[in-house]
Design brief:
By secondary structure, the protein is α+β, with helices and mostly antiparallel strands. Among the domains are: about 120 residues, no CATH class; about 350 residues, 3-Layer(aba) Sandwich (Beta-lactamase), CATH 3.40.710.10. The chain is about 40% helix and about 20% strand. The protein is built from 27 helices and 26 strands. The strands form eight sheets. Strands 2, 3, 4, 7, 8, 13, 21 and 22 form an eight-stranded mixed beta sheet that branches. Strand 25 and strand 26 form a beta hairpin.
């Protein structure tokens, strides 16, 4: 047994050890807090630790065979942090002007690279363009006003950029002392009560919201008002040149749009060079609050399909907290203010797949902004999903080149759409004029100002009278309603009279007695005047709805719905214009030949024809074949044909209209000059339609075609503005068919999609 003395000795040793530990700990505390306390306080104040978001690379976009159209590469941006760069900083405008000048100099220094040969040998047949590395630095100035005097607004009234500026001017009218704008808004608000206006659906129009303030104040007046406000209220330096003042106003406006503030940084410039980055890093004490961020930026592997692929850009305040472009993003997981999001096209439509999941990083810096330590936090960014489209890039190339070759001489524009009639897949969709996406930011002001409306996708948003391409629908409606049959004939003398009004037919040289197939072949107006008179506009409206004409198709990217002529639409128009006459008998006959109030998109016309040739199934057009995870390992979404309508058509109706469209491309038909000797039998319908723009009248040429005739695999619609006749654009259809069937016969297209590979 242990005696009492041993226990006491052991207890004494433990007490001594405990006292020693307490003494050592106390000595260290005295050393830290008393002896070296001030030194450690100074050192701790010299470092800041913060956690920031690391954006994820967007998913790639490929064609149906896996050929890349949009991928990613690393780029560098200059980002301003509100708290240290802007808030309570008296020299903020001096610093901002200095940085803006350096970015402009950086851009000018990179300019020779843009003219250099960027051909890399990869996919040259697909129109491989330059990459982001060859582009100049881009200053984030979204103000739609020219950069030099005389100052003018960029783009047409009603464009997205002008609308955004208009809202800013109306909201700031009192602050900027723009009395004319303030008064106009007050009058418009009063008019909402006293003289309400309505849209096509009968919904009231907010006249104050619809008011375009950029038509009430000149660009120069707005810049002068902004300059005065920024000098007197915000502390911007006085004595700036007009060019520097314009640049400061543009950047401040862009900051406001981006929601620059506490917790929300502002990307001042993108794609800056390593030389500028090195300078900022070397002089970081002079640029507190300026961060250099590396991120995956879009690389365009093709100059094709700009309107389909769409654009990306930094998120604005009305997207973060409002409904614009898929917002509000503040309510969606994985988004931060000032993220890059899709703005148009597939980039916007498939944003939730392409965006990816952001990660985070922790950075320790000194008070001058110099980075001391950086490490990735508990989770890394995950790239977005990859989109495999239905587009055949080779067919797209032919469609765009042929459209330019045959339409550019008419001085306006046009569109071409190629569909698979058995699934609704879009094989090619071209809009002329077009532009390269890699130059979009650099050339934005020029593109917006182009009177040809370059940025509009004419295939989905161009609204055109269908002309004689509509006669196939009139024939179907007349046959199905029992108004005509295979034996019905009408004699055409070149003139049709109704109620004392005369309607012309100039589509054949001599008087003829025609049945329905001959009327389609020769595109006889008189035959369809007679059908329209008996059918009436009320029934035509019903058949238009059945074939999806005058309604949105449901394609992923933005589109216009157009409208079908008839008493319903005319009544809606008269709500805003009571002087407009009611629907009458003369409207029945003009609507039957594709005129009157009809306006449809080329996509709608292609889809309507697809439903005819496949026997009555109306598919939702789609640009997406499937969507895969970032490493291509799993399928996220598999697109399947979606039927949006079924039209009951009897066999005799189909036989007669198909025979008529067969004759159109045969000897004597309106497209015989292009297709009479074509090795594959093609069916179709030409059209000529009167259009008006700014009081000027011109004739559009349209052609809707399909092949092979006995088992259609492809339907094509081409519209040429001011082309005059459908036969003028028929060569575009021929070129697309040449490419389609040559590719089909060769059967050498192999998927090049990279499976189970990580994005760089």
């Amino acid at each position: 047994m242990v005696n009492k003395n041993q226990l006491l000795r052991r207890l004494l040793v433990l007490v001594c050890l405990l006292l020693l530990c307490v003494g050592l700990a106390g000595g260290q505390l005295i050393q830290l807090q008393v002896v070296n306390g001030e030194d450690y306080v100074r050192r701790s104040a010299s470092f800041l630790t913060g956690t920031s978001t690391v954006s994820a690379a967007r998913g790639e976009i490929l064609d149906r065979y896996g050929r890349p159209m949009v991928t990613n590469q690393t780029g560098f941006s200059l980002v301003l942090v509100y708290s240290s760069f802007w808030e309570d900083q008296p020299d903020r405008f001096d610093k901002l002007l200095d940085l803006a000048h350096r970015v402009r100099q950086d851009s000018a220094a990179a300019a020779p690279a843009e003219g250099a040969d960027t051909e890399s040998g990869a996919e040259p047949e697909n129109g491989d363009g330059g990459t982001a590395e060859a582009e100049a630095a881009i200053l984030n100035d979204v103000l739609p006003i020219t950069e030099s005097s005389p100052y003018e607004y960029v783009g047409e009234s009603g464009s997205s950029a002008r609308n955004q500026l208009s809202e800013y001017i109306k909201q700031s009218a009192e602050t900027l002392h723009l009395d004319a704008v303030k008064q106009a808004v007050e009058e418009a608000e009063a008019a909402n009560e006293a003289s309400p206006r309505y849209d096509e659906d009968g919904e009231p129009i907010d006249q104050a919201a619809a008011l375009d303030a950029t038509t009430l104040v000149s660009a120069g007046e707005f810049l002068r008002a902004m300059r005065a406000y920024m000098e007197e209220t915000l502390g911007m330096q006085t004595g700036l040149s007009d060019a520097d003042s314009r640049m400061m106003v543009g950047l401040y406006y862009s900051m406001r749009n981006a929601g620059f503030g506490t917790g929300t940084a502002f990307t001042l410039a993108e794609n800056v060079s390593m030389d500028l980055i090195a300078y900022i890093k070397e002089h970081h004490k002079d640029y507190a609050g300026v961060e250099v961020q590396s991120e995956a930026v879009r690389k365009y592997n093709t100059t094709l399909a700009a309107h389909l692929l769409g654009t990306v850009g930094n998120m604005y305040a009305d997207e973060w907290s409002g409904t614009k472009n898929g917002g509000p993003y503040r309510d969606k997981p994985g988004y931060n203010m000032n993220d890059t999001i899709g703005k148009t096209g597939l980039e916007a439509a498939l944003e939730r797949y392409l965006h990816g999941t952001a990660g985070s990083r922790t950075v320790t810096t000194d008070l001058g902004g110099g980075s001391m330590e950086e490490h990735t936090a508990s989770y890394a960014p995950q790239p977005g999903d990859n989109v495999i489209t239905t587009i055949d890039l080779e067919l797209q190339k032919v469609a765009e080149e042929s459209l330019q070759n045959y339409v550019s001489d008419y001085g306006r524009g046009g569109a071409a759409v190629a569909l698979d009639p058995n699934s609704g897949e879009v094989l090619a969709m071209a809009s002329y004029p077009t532009y390269p996406l890699e130059k979009y930011n650099e050339d934005y002001n020029e593109l917006e100002a182009d009177p040809r409306n370059v940025l509009m996708n004419r295939a989905t948003s161009g609204q055109y009278p269908p002309g004689s391409t509509f006669k196939v629908l009139t024939a179907i409606a007349g046959l199905q309603e029992g108004i005509i049959d295979a034996n019905t004939t009408f004699t055409c003398t070149g003139e049709f009279e109704l109620g004392g009004q005369k309607f012309a037919c100039n589509n054949h040289d001599t008087p003829m007695t025609l049945d329905v197939t001959q009327a389609i072949k020769y595109s006889c107006n008189t035959f369809f005047y007679n059908v329209g008179q008996r059918l009436t506009g009320e029934h035509l409206e019903k058949w238009c709805a059945s074939f999806g004409l005058g309604k949105a198709t449901g394609i992923e990217i933005g589109e216009e719905s157009g409208h079908a002529a008839g008493p319903t639409y005319r009544a809606a128009m008269r709500k805003n214009d009571p002087d407009l006459r009611e629907w009458q008998g003369g409207d029945d006959v003009t609507a039957a030949i594709g005129q009157s109030d009809h306006v449809f998109t080329p996509l709608q016309l292609a889809n309507y024809m697809a439903a005819v040739v496949n026997g009555g199934t109306l598919y939702r057009p789609t640009l997406v074949k499937n969507i895969k995870t970032y490493d291509y390992a799993d399928v996220v979404r598999e697109e399947k044909p979606e039927v949006i309508g079924t039209i009951e058509l009897n066999a005799e109706t189909l036989r007669l209209v198909m025979q008529g469209m067969s004759d159109v491309t045969a000897e004597g038909g309106t497209a015989a000059s292009v297709f009479a000797e074509y090795p594959i039998k093609v069916g179709g319908k030409t059209g000529t339609a009167e259009s008006f723009d700014d009081g000027m009248k011109f004739d559009n040429g349209l052609f809707v075609a399909f092949a092979p005739f006995d088992d259609p695999e492809i339907v094509i619609c081409v519209v040429g503005e001011n082309a005059g006749h459908g036969s003028s654009v028929a060569p575009v259809v021929r070129d697309i068919l040449d490419a389609y069937f040559a590719e089909d016969e060769a059967d050498t297209v192999e998927p090049v999609e990279a499976e189970n590979t990580l994005l760089p």
